[in-house]
Design goal:
Distance between the termini: 107 Å
């Protein structure tokens, strides 16, 4: 039976991409990993319910295929198996070669199901592993699989797990870790909302599957989303009477780092033939074949371009499925010249798109099989598309910025079976975009018997140089979408599924220019007992303040307070004297004019000694020293108090004590 897969048949490739939904364009952080390498932690649920929802252990087959498809070298992989705690932790190491990959899967498989479900602990452990042992030059991600939701014996354990989860999500958001989650809801008891919330918070993907047999497809989906992988799935078929199936696949001239031939079913023997006619028998490629109970993956690294042939043998009538997976390293990189900055209406910008293979530019003669289309959005208009022309080792288009506003440009490159998308770049024309000011932190006290809604002002996060009104959008949130809404510049919170969470916010001006900032929301639960204790504490504090105030008011004045006002013209007014039994004498009682401060809020405080204190309601200068409280001794020496350090306007204060002696040891 002869079958041929032609990568150069563009229509077939695009149809397969759309039908399978598993081809990811080379855009975003994941599509831009250097040479498609990652720090990866597998987080796998091994609670007791897994024996029921996946009794055949099909999750291990799915995980095994995912790991086996990883590039031969360069990925750093670890694993966490959790139940009510951490049942197994496999520290991160480079998964280089077949044996290292098989060891990862065997370690995960070695843990028998049992116990409860502590998702927070598993997730926190994975984040800590990435922090401690991840390669800082590689992007990081977590693959999380569970058949339920957080389920622990006590409220205290649940609360701790929720805290661990909140901490892990916030750390992942801050560091840019992606979390892809799978909910195995085979018996309908899983609360998939918890795993969905985790994935959505960090821009990951979430999938719910109803039976364990579908896990294989989801892991393949995630593999294609994460890596620049092109997958071709053939229908399962039976071996004919000859017991032999043959076929072929074509490797294009650029961008294919590895080819994986996935044989699912009863393959007893197989061989490959290169475009140059060299035949590799099963024994020749054993060290490049990952073999499990139900499948074999043959990995061909640095394959020669051209037509490859394969031959698979099995028992007549038994079924086999053959999939071809291309690990690609081709990306499209966009640039603008002049780059960045504000442009003026009428300026022209040269947009270039270069094809790169593992970060290195490909030769100009390899562009002939590709076509590039530039999409321009904004400039107070809709989206427009322009064909780009190949010019040397790049595609180019000269864009005329005819109108003021804010433009975004990106490109799509198709050909040789690829559909590549560039990043998006921004161009401001006669427009200054919003400016980052600060990240916002807000604490919400959760009181018993209260709705606990919160309103958070977003305007301090970003300013608009043009003064135009800004529109705010949450790009991602640790909280569920039904827990918050944005109205104008206010973030309204109505409920809190996490003890703390983070928002990735974006503020747009009227031209579409934007700036990003973060909002951190922390909750503090006030229990009924806590509320009563807090109220009691407030009452005690108020009582203490009252006692201190009463004591101060009971202290006697043993003398006369004297005040003389002066102004900026050098005029000194008549002295004014006041006496009182106890407490305070306000400056407003001295018949002052405008002395530069509010005399009704300033006063002499009795001490029961040979001195008093002059207390001001704001910081002023007293004999060259700045403060709010000045000692006025009873020996007749004056204290000059002024709003400014040059004493241009203010008062002179002195105290004539009736007590004998100096200031006294009481001061």
């Amino acid at each position: 039976m002869k079958r041929t897969i032609f990568l150069k048949t563009m229509a077939l490739s695009l149809c397969l991409f759309l039908i399978l939904g598993i081809f990811c364009a080379a855009s975003g952080a994941e599509g831009r990993a250097a040479s498609n390498r990652y720090n990866i932690v597998l987080v796998v649920d091994s609670s007791g319910s897994m024996a029921r929802t996946d009794g055949q252990g099909l999750r291990f087959s799915a995980i095994g295929k995912f790991v086996a498809l990883l590039a031969e070298k360069g990925n750093r992989v670890g694993a966490v198996v959790f139940n009510e705690g951490i049942a197994m932790q496999l520290n991160m190491a480079y998964a280089d070669g077949i044996w290292a990959k098989q060891n990862i899967v065997e370690q995960v498989r070695s843990i028998a199901p049992g116990g409860d479900t502590n998702i927070g602990k598993g997730l926190q452990t994975a984040v800590n592993m990435l922090n401690a042992d991840g390669n800082p030059n590689l992007p990081s991600l977590i693959l999380l699989l569970s058949d339920g939701n957080t389920d622990l014996p006590t409220e205290e354990e649940v609360a701790q797990s929720q805290k661990d989860k909140a901490d892990a999500i916030q750390r992942a958001m801050e560091l840019g870790y992606k979390i892809h989650a799978i909910s195995l809801n085979a018996d309908g008891s899983a609360n998939s909302a918890e795993l969905m919330q985790i994935a959505n918070a960090v821009g990951g993907q979430f999938r719910e599957v109803k039976k364990a047999a579908d896990l294989d497809d989801v892991f393949k989906l995630y593999y294609a989303l994460i890596y620049n992988a092109v997958m071709f799935d053939d229908a399962s078929e039976a071996f004919p009477g000859s017991g032999e199936i043959t076929g072929s696949f074509e490797v294009p001239a650029v961008g294919v780092e590895e080819v994986n031939i996935v044989l699912s079913g009863g393959a007893e023997d197989y061989s490959l033939e290169s475009p140059h006619g060299r035949v590799y028998e099963k024994a020749d490629i054993a060290s490049f074949a990952y073999t499990a109970e139900t499948y074999t993956i043959i990995k061909v690294t640095s394959p020669d371009p051209g037509l490859w042939k394969y031959r698979v043998k099995g028992a007549p009538g038994s079924r086999i499925q053959i999939n071809i997976v291309y690990n690609t390293n081709l990306t499209a990189e966009i640039s603008a010249s002049p780059a960045g900055g504000a442009h003026l209406a009428g300026d022209s910008v040269l947009i270039s798109v270069a094809l790169e293979e593992s970060g290195a530019a490909i030769a100009a003669d390899k562009y002939s099989g590709f076509k590039a289309v530039l999409t321009v959005t904004g400039g107070k208009g809709g989206a427009q598309s322009f064909d780009m022309s190949a010019s040397g080792p790049a595609f180019e288009y000269r864009l005329i910025l005819e109108k003021s506003g804010f433009y975004t440009v990106k490109a799509e490159v198709a050909g040789e079976g690829y559909l590549l998308q560039t990043e998006e770049i921004a161009l401001g024309v006669d427009n200054n975009p919003p400016v980052f000011e600060k990240n916002i932190e807000h604490t919400v006290l959760l009181w018993p018997f209260k709705g606990n809604e919160a309103e958070i002002d977003l305007s301090p996060g970003v300013s608009s140089p043009s003064g135009s009104a800004l529109t705010y959008e949450a790009l991602s949130s640790a909280f569920n979408s039904d827990e918050y809404r944005i109205s104008g510049s206010t973030l309204h919170m109505s409920s809190y599924s996490l003890g703390k969470g983070m928002f990735k916010m974006r503020a747009y001006d009227q031209e579409g220019a934007y700036c990003d900032f973060d909002v951190f929301v922390r909750t503090v639960s006030i229990t009924l007992l806590g509320a009563l204790l807090l109220l009691a504490g407030l009452l005690i504090a108020l009582a203490a303040i009252g006692v201190v105030t009463w004591m101060l008011l009971q202290k006697r004045f043993y003398g006369t307070c004297v005040v003389q006002q002066f102004d900026s013209d050098g005029n000194y007014y008549e002295e004014s004297c006041r006496t009182k039994g106890r407490g305070r004498i306000r400056l407003s009682e001295f018949n002052l004019g405008n002395a530069g401060f509010d005399a009704s809020k300033c006063y002499f405080q009795a001490t029961g000694k040979r001195h008093v204190f002059l207390c001001m309601n704001e910081s002023v200068y007293g004999d060259g020293m700045k403060g709010k409280k000045f000692l006025v001794n009873g020996s007749g020496f004056e204290v000059t108090v002024s709003k400014d350090e040059f004493s241009t306007k203010g008062v002179r204060a002195r105290f004539i004590s009736k007590l004998p002696g100096g200031i006294g040891s009481g001061w």
